[in-house]
Design a protein that fits this description.
The protein is mainly alpha-helical. It has one domain. It has helices at residues 2-15, 18-25, 40-46, 49-72, 77-92, 105-115, 117-134, 137-146, 148-155, 161-174, 176-184. Helix 4 packs antiparallel against helix 5 (77-92). It starts with a helix and ends in a 10-residue tail after the last helix.
């Protein structure tokens, strides 16, 4: 019952549409602008750097808060990860947006920052390097989280591998349209105004 309650709480926390609220405070309807996505990349393209930064922080905190909540109630390593995944699912399928939402990159990084800090650091560095070289936020997410199952084993423990694999698959599934656009050469670069 404890795990079920915490999973529901994590889903609700994850459902808070940080980017949408920040953009709305600037008079912008994020669902009608740019890619229509509620994440930091679309906020950057449509609203600017500082709103994108605060969106990134807010979405990251949602994932971190879920794992911290699980740790506070001593759920154990596996269930900490499961509860973290529910916060990502909340972000991706928000209760407040009729089960639509973002792609879960920042929230996933927030989960990792508490669940496996060294893995999170490696994932973040890999994301930054990829975006610096390619200028594609989606490709950076695919590369950095594509390596997540391996990096989890390298920097942490195999016990957390199922959670890392699940997170990587969730990122892949949410980026299917981006993969198609990358293949066609039509994917917009990070920061490019739409």
């Amino acid at each position: 019952m404890k795990v079920i309650f915490l999973s529901v709480a994590a889903f609700i926390i994850g459902s808070i549409p940080t980017g949408l609220l920040i953009a709305r405070s600037r008079g912008i309807d994020l669902k009608q602008k740019g890619s229509g996505n509620i994440g930091a990349t679309n906020v950057l393209r449509t609203t600017g750097k500082w709103p994108a930064f605060f969106t990134l922080c807010g979405d990251t905190l949602k994932g971190a808060a879920a794992v911290l909540l699980a740790r506070h109630y001593d759920t154990g390593i596996l269930y900490e990860g499961v509860i973290g995944i529910f916060s990502i699912l909340g972000h991706n399928f928000s209760l407040f947006l009729r089960f639509k939402g973002g792609k879960g990159v920042a929230t996933s990084l927030g989960v990792l920052s508490v669940y496996s800090p060294f893995t999170a650091l490696f994932t973040g560095i890999l994301w930054l390097l990829t975006i610096f070289i390619t200028k594609y936020s989606s490709l950076a997410a695919l590369v950095s989280f594509g390596f997540l199952p391996v990096s989890m084993i390298l920097f942490d423990t195999g016990e957390k591998f199922p959670i890392a694999l699940t997170m990587a698959l969730m990122i892949l599934i949410r980026h299917c349209e981006n993969i198609s656009r990358l293949a066609r050469g039509t994917e917009p670069k990070a920061g490019k105004k739409i």
